[in-house]
Design goal:
Residues 3-46 form the DUF4158 domain. This protein is mostly helical. Helix content is 37%, strand content 0%.
């Protein structure tokens, strides 16, 4: 999916719950900086896909 902000609300809420993010609406902020997704992909690769959850609204 080219724009992760286009996922259905139910999917965003489910993933937010799995990642410990209290407010799934912070997804609409994702990608405001052009290199955000690329930066995150690199961080995930470096962490071996077992990194920590995002800090946006963590519970």
């Amino acid at each position: 999916m080219p724009d992760p902000r286009q996922v259905p609300v139910e999917v965003a809420e489910y993933l937010a719950e799995q990642l410990g993010i209290a407010d799934a609406s912070c997804l609409k902020e994702y990608g405001k900086r052009d290199r955000t997704a690329r930066t995150h992909a690199g961080e995930i690769q470096q962490a071996g896909a077992g990194g920590t959850s995002p800090k946006c609204g963590t519970s």
